[in-house]
C-alpha cells in the first residue's frame, strides 16, 4: 500500500481504498472534492494536512513511526472529533437500521438484542467521557507547556484503557450465527455497519495506544528531564 502525500488528490485517495471514507467523516471533511489536492481540502476544512496524512497513512499501511510532539494536539482534536462522530452519528444510525431489521417473529429475543446494543453504546459513552475529562486535557496541557495541576500520568490511562471494539463483535456474532429471518437484506446491512464500526473503533483504539500514549510519554520524559 502506497503512502499518500499532500499533492495527491482526495479522489485518488478514496479510489485507492474506500476504507478512507470513514476517516474523512471522522475528520468532518465536507464533500465536493473536484480535483482538489489533500493539502487544498485540508486547508479549506481547517485541518493540518500533516496530521491528516499521518493518520491516513498509519490507518492504511499500519506502518508506525512516532510523529513529532507538535502533532499531539492535532491528534487529540481528531480523536475528540471521532468520539462525537461515533456517538452522535454512527451509533444512532446503526440503532435505527437495527430496529428496522428486526423480524417480528422474534419478539422474544428482539428486546435482548436492542438492550445489548444500548448497553454497548453506554459503555462506549463512559469510555469516551473518561478520556475527554482526564486524558485529552492532560495531553493538551503537556503539549502547550502549561503547568500540570494533577498527579495524573499517561501510564494510568495505559493500564486501564480497555478494548472497546471487542464487545461489538459479540453482537455481530449473535446476529451472524443465531438470528434467523426471512427478510435478511436489512440485517445484512446492519452486519456491514457493525463490521465497519468495529474496524473504526479498533483503529481509534490503535491511535490512542500506539500513538497518543507513547507521544505523551515522550512529552512527560522531556518535562522531567527539563526539571532536573
Ligand atoms: Fe477515544
Ligand atoms: Fe479509548
Features:
0% strand, 9 helices, mainly alpha, 228 residues, 2 domains
Description:
With 228 residues, this protein is mainly alpha-helical. The chain has two domains: 10-61, no CATH class; 69-227, no CATH class. Helix content is 72%, strand content 0%. It contains nine helices and no strands. The longest helix has 43 residues, at 185-227. The model has no long low-confidence stretch (mean pLDDT 92). Bound molecules: fe (ii) ion (2 copies).
SSE class: mainly alpha
Helix content: over 70%
Radius of gyration: 20 Å
Instruction: Average the pLDDT over all residues and give the rounded result.
Output: 92
Task: List the helices and strands in order.
Answer: HHHHHHHHH
Count of the separate structural domains: 2
Largest sheet: none
Number of strands: 0
| Percentage of residues in strands | under 5%
State the separation between the terminal residues, measured CA to CA.
44 Å
Amino acid at each position: 500500500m502506497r503512502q499518500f502525500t499532500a499533492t495527491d488528490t482526495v479522489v485518488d485517495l478514496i479510489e485507492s481504498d474506500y476504507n478512507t471514507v470513514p476517516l474523512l467523516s471522522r475528520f468532518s471533511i465536507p464533500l465536493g472534492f473536484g480535483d482538489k489536492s489533500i493539502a487544498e481540502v485540508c486547508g479549506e476544512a481547517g485541518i493540518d494536512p500533516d496530521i491528516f496524512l499521518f493518520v491516513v497513512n498509519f490507518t492504511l499501511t499500519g506502518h508506525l513511526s512516532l510523529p513529532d510532539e507538535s502533532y499531539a494536539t492535532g491528534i487529540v482534536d481528531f480523536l475528540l472529533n471521532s468520539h462525537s462522530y461515533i456517538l452522535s452519528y454512527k451509533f444512532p444510525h446503526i440503532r435505527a437500521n437495527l430496529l428496522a431489521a428486526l423480524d417480528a417473529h422474534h419478539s422474544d429475543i428482539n428486546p435482548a438484542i436492542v438492550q445489548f446494543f444500548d448497553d454497548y453504546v453506554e459503555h462506549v459513552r463512559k469510555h469516551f467521557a473518561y478520556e475527554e475529562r482526564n486524558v485529552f486535557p492532560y495531553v493538551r496541557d503537556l503539549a502547550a507547556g502549561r503547568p500540570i495541576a494533577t498527579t495524573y500520568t499517561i501510564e494510568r490511562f495505559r493500564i486501564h484503557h480497555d478494548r472497546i471494539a471487542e464487545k461489538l463483535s459479540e453482537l455481530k456474532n449473535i446476529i451472524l450465527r443465531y438470528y434467523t429471518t426471512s427478510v435478511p437484506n436489512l440485517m445484512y446491512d446492519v452486519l456491514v455497519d457493525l463490521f465497519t464500526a468495529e474496524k473504526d473503533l479498533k483503529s481509534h483504539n490503535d491511535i490512542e495506544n500506539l500513538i497518543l500514549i507513547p507521544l505523551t510519554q515522550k512529552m512527560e520524559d522531556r518535562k522531567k528531564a527539563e526539571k532536573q
